[in-house]
Amino acid sequence: MNLINKSVVVTGGAGFIGSHLVDRLIDEKPGNLVVIDDFSLGKERNLSSAKRKYPNLKVYKQDATRMRQMEDILKNESVDVVFNLAIECLPKSLVKPKAGYDTNVELTSVMCELARKGFFKTLIHFSSSEAYGNAENIPMMENHPLKPTTPYGASKIASDHLVLSYVQTFGIKASIIRPFNAYGPRQNEGNYAGVIPLTIKRIFHKKSPMIYGDGLQTRDYTYVTDLAEAAVRICKEEETRGRVLNIASGQETTIKDLVTKIAELMNSEKPVIYEEARPGDVRRFFGSNLVARALIGYKPKIDLEEGLRLTIKWYSDLFDPEKVRVSHARETQG
């Protein structure tokens, strides 16, 4: 499948992963590129580079659970492909579990119905490794048992099954991406922040880094541009239709080692503060990317240390008031 001159939509496209995917899609020279985002987590600043590179980028501020409004947008844009990244995030679902679960399933249901009705041709749906729950087999492959420990994980399983049921029953064209622990620039640093932006922010402001639990829980970190590259390749490869593909680094890292590495890179010697473990926190993650390697030639380019350096640099610029003032002045003059 070729994306040149195609009409492409990214729901959640102003978010962390979505905006990097938009940047990557521009390289494919689509004829029409559209972002749909309600901006509950997404930010205008995340699309600034995309708008410079692709001045015709269209942005709709829209709740993607609204069927009628989504029908109108997709009909107006004559869409070929939808990348579905709109979600209620995991930390928020721990505060509002029912709302988080219902919203995530409804977002997927709307996309599947729109595909069934012919409003677009191909759905690339973003799942989450949270669907697996704690690792029972290492490394975790796509046939790993699905035993989520959070309502968020349960919502992703339900959404994945819904997509696959539409593939089987109605013949829609869809592929499912199951990423492991994406990180990098633009990840939400405010409410519901993940461990990497939270740690960088605390150290930047001369505070001690914080760990929930004992820090021995493990994760498999994938730099966000590697994930965006994988998403484009999955879209272009017809053999991925009707399948789930892990996107993982294949390296297991403890939270303690991660926080220690960030502190080392930021020259912080403040002691780590340990807080009570978060409810439903997965103990062990370590993903296999063998299927992605076989089907799309996936190979991560950015290792963890390089990715952390790039991420720290981006957040340090973001948190530096002087750099923010200079940047804003340049944008105003431009």
Structure summary:
With 334 residues, this protein is an alpha/beta fold. It has 12 helices and 13 strands.
Describe this structure in words.
- With 334 residues, this protein is of the alpha/beta class.
- The protein contains twelve helices and 13 strands.
- Strands 3-2-1-4-5-6-11 form a seven-stranded parallel sheet, with helices on both faces.
- Helix 1 packs across helix 8 and helix 7 runs parallel beside helix 9.
Q: Which structural class matches the secondary elements? A: alpha/beta
Q: Which sequence of strands runs across the widest sheet?
A: 3-2-1-4-5-6-11
Q: Could you please say which CATH topology applies here? A: Rossmann fold
Low-confidence stretches: 324-334
Report the sheet-strand fraction.
Answer: 5-15%
CATH C-level class is: Alpha Beta
Query: Largest sheet, if any?
Result: 7 strands, parallel
Total beta strands: 13
CATH architecture: 3-Layer(aba) Sandwich
Classified in CATH, the superfamily is NAD(P)-binding Rossmann-like Domain
Question: Gap between N and C termini, in Å?
Answer: 38 Å
Number of domains: 1
Basic shape: globular
Provide mean pLDDT, rounded: 93
Structural descriptors:
334 residues; alpha/beta; Rossmann fold; two-stranded parallel sheet; 12 helices; disordered C terminus
Topology:
Layout lengths: L6 E5 L4 H11 L5 E6 L10 H6 L4 E4 L5 H11 L3 E4 L5 H6 L1 H20 L5 E5 L24 H20 L2 E7 L2 E2 L11 H10 L5 E3 L5 E2 L2 E2 H13 L7 E4 L5 E2 H11 L7 E3 L14 H7 L7 H16 L1 H13 L1
Parallel strand pairs: 1-2, 1-4, 2-3, 4-5, 5-6, 6-11, 7-10, 8-13
Antiparallel strand pairs: 9-12
Helix pairs in contact: 1-8, 5-6, 7-9, 7-11
